[in-house]
Amino acid sequence: MTDELLFVALGGAGEIGMNMSLYCCNGKWLAVDCGLTFADDTLPGIDLLFPDPSFIEERRKDLVGLVLTHAHEDHLGAVAHLWPRMNCPVYATPFTMYLLKRKLSEAGLLDRVPLHEIEVGGSVDVGEFGVNYIQVTHSIPEAHSLAIETPHGTIVHSGDWKLDPDPLVGPVTDTKRLAAFGDKGVRALICDSTNALSPGRSRSESEVLESLTELVGELSGRVVITTFASNVARIGSIAEAAAANGRSLVVSGRSLHRNIEAAKACGYLQDMPAHLDEDEAGYLPRENIVILCTGCQGEPRGAMARIAMHEHRHIHLETGDTVIFSSKIIPGNEKMIGLVQNRLVYDGLNVITEKDRFVHVSGHPARDELREYYGLVRPEIAVPVHGEARHLSRHSELASELGIKEAPVIENGDVLRLAPGPVKVIDHIATGRLALDGGRITATDSKTLQSRKRMMFNGIAFVVVVLDGKQKSIMTPRVTIRGVLDHADSLAEAELHDKSVEAAETGLVNVKDDRRGDDGAIFDAVSQSVRRVLKQASKGRRPAVEVEVVRLA
Predict the structure, then answer these.
(1) Helix (H) and strand (E) counts for the chain?
(2) How far apart are CA 341 and CA 182, in angstroms?
(3) 5-200+362-442: which CATH topology?
(4) Residue 259, Cα to own-chain centre: how many angstroms?
(5) Cα distance between residue 470 and residue 380, in whole Å
(6) Fewest CB atoms within 10 A around its CB: which of 97, 116, 246, 453?
(7) Averaged over 176-196, what is the pLDDT?
(8) In CATH, which superfamily holds the domain spanning 205-352?
(9) End-to-end CA distance of the chain
(10) What's the half-sphere exposure (Cβ side, CA atoms, 13 Å) at 344?
(11) Are 63 and 98 in contact (CB under 8 A)?
(12) How open is the CA angle 321-323-324, to the nearest 5 degrees?
C-alpha cells in the first residue's frame, strides 16, 4: 500500500450512521470521523454500536491522525470508546472539540488524547495529508467538508451538508472555496448520499422558524416540542417561536442543556431568549409555556418517552395539550417512535409530525443540491457514501448523468484505489460492528450476545445434576424452564417439566462410566437430550439449555 492513494470505509458505506473512513497515502493512514449507530431489538441489552477498528488498530503506527467533520453522534460518538485502540492525534473545530472534550472527560481520557483545535474554515497538515476545512451548512454548527491534498491529488470528503441560503446559525456553505478547489482539480469526491432519492432541494431552516411560530400561535394548552438535541438552529427557532407567542421556554433533557451550553460557549445562540429548567414547568399557566425536550426518536431514556409513560418527575400533560415532533424518523426507530406517539394519542394529546405540518427540514442535500455541489467540485471520480445501498446506487447514477466517468458503489471493507491509474477495488478487508454492553465493548457475534438472543427469542431451561464421589446421581435432576410455554397453560407446562426431567435422566444415563468425571461430557449429553424435548414442545424453536453439574465428595 505504498505509492498509492486508497480509500476504505469501516462504517457508513451501505448504511446511514456509524461513519468511519480511512485514507492511505504512501503507506500512511488518515481517519475521518468515528461515529456510532443505535442498536435495534435484535441485540437485547445493547444500545450503541461502533465500527470495528481492528484493521487500523493493526496499523496504528502508521495512523497519523483522526479528523472530525462535525459533532453528530454518527460521526463523533465512538471516539471516546475506540480511541485507546487507535492512539492518534485528534483534530476538530471549536464546537466539535467542546463536545468531544466532555465525552473524553467522562471516559477518563481527556488528559491522554492529543487534541488539536482547528479554527473554523482552517487548514492543517496531518502527516502526508494537507487537510482543509470548508464550511458547509448542516443541522449542527461547524459542519465541514474536507479538501484533503495529497501527492496523488486532492480528495474532497463532503461530510454531511446542504445548501441552505438562510441556516440561522453559522454561515452558508462556502461555495467559493469549494469552487476554488474544483478549479485546481479534484481527483475524487467522497459524498453524502442520504437524500439522493429526493428530488429538488432541501428547504431552509428559516422556513421552519416561520412555520413553528405560526403553529405555536394556533395552539392552546401546553405545547411540547421534541427535536434532535444537536440541532442548535432548531433549538434557537423553538425558543423564538415560544417568545413570539408570549410563552416561556422550558428545557428538559441532559443533552439539550449540554448542547446549548456548548453553543453559547462557542459564540452561538447569543440572542436566544432565557429558558427555564423542567422543575419550574409546573408553576406556570399551561398556555404560557413551550417545553423543549429530548427523545424525538422514541429513546426510552429521553424526556419525551418519560413524559409519554407518565414517568417524568416534573412534566405532566393533559387532554388537549400538543406534542410536536420537529424531526424525521431515523430508519430503525419506527417502533420506538410509534410506541411513544400512540401512548400520547391514547392520553388525548394532539400529536403533530412532519407529515402533518411543516415542522422539520433535512440537514442533507437533495438531488438538485448534489448537482450544484458537483458543479463546484468537478471531480474525476465520485464515491457515494453515507447511505444505504439504494441511496448509493441512485447517487452513482446521478454522478454518471453529470458526466463523472467513474462512480463506484462500494460497501464497508472495500479497499478502493483512487490513484494512480483507474479507480478500482483492489482488496476487501474484514469489517464488523462492536457493541457497548453495559460499560464493556464486545463483538456483536460474541457468545454472550448470541446466548442472550437465543434466550430472548427461544426461551431457556436450567438443569442441575448432582453426583456423589463415585459419579453416581444422588437425586432427580432439577429442571427450571422459562419462556418456552405459556404459564397460563399449567397442565402443559407441568407435562413439559416432567418430560424434561426424564430427558435429563436419560442423557445422564447415556454418559459412559469412564466419562462421568468430565463435566463437559455430562453437559453435552444432558443438554442435547433436554433440547430435543423442548424443541418438540415449542414447535421447532431451539431453547437454550444450561446444565450445572454439582459434585459432592
Answers:
(1) 15, 27
(2) 46
(3) Metallo-beta-lactamase; Chain A (3.60.15)
(4) 18
(5) 78
(6) 246
(7) 98
(8) Metallo-hydrolase/oxidoreductase (3.40.50.10710)
(9) 62
(10) 27
(11) no
(12) 140
What length does the chain have? 553
For the chain, the 3-state helix, strand and coil shares in percent, each to the nearest 5, are 35, 25, 40
pTM over 0.85: yes
The angle formed by the CA atoms of residues 3, 59 and 15, to the nearest 5 degrees, is 90
Comparing CA positions, the residue from 42, 173, 128 lying closest to residue 452 is 42
- Average pLDDT score, the chain: 92
User: Rounded to whole angstroms, how far apart are CA atoms 151 and 173?
Assistant: 27
Cell 437465543 identifies what position? 454
Segment holding 238, helix H or strand E: helix 232-244
Write the class of the CATH domain 459-551.
alpha beta
| Residue of 112, 167, 120 whose CA lies nearest to 139 | 167
Q: Which three three-digit cell numbers place residue 204?
A: 431552509
Q: Among candidates 35, 9, 13, which has minimal Cα distance to 22?
A: 9
Give the whole-angstrom CA distance, residue 508 versus residue 510.
Answer: 5
**pLDDT tens string 294-330:** 999 998 889 999 999 999 999 999 999 999 999 999 8
Residue 450, C-beta contacts closer than 8 angstroms, at least 6 positions apart: none
pLDDT digits (tens, 9 = 90+) for 29-38: 999 999 998 8
Cα(141)–Cα(164) distance, rounded to whole angstroms? 13
- The residue written with cell numbers 424525538 in the block is 296
- pLDDT above 90 coverage of the chain, percent: 72
Separation in Å, CA 416 to CA 188, 385, 522 = 11, 13, 51
pLDDT digits (tens, 9 = 90+) for 22-56: 999 999 999 999 999 887 777 767 778 899 999 99
**Domain layout of the chain by residue ranges:** 5-200+362-442, 205-352, 459-551
Residue 225: Cβ within 10 Å count = 28
Whole-number pLDDT of residue 489: 61
> pLDDT per residue over 485-528, tens digit each?
765 566 777 888 889 889 888 988 888 888 888 988 999 999 99
The widest CA-to-CA distance across the chain, in whole angstroms, is 86
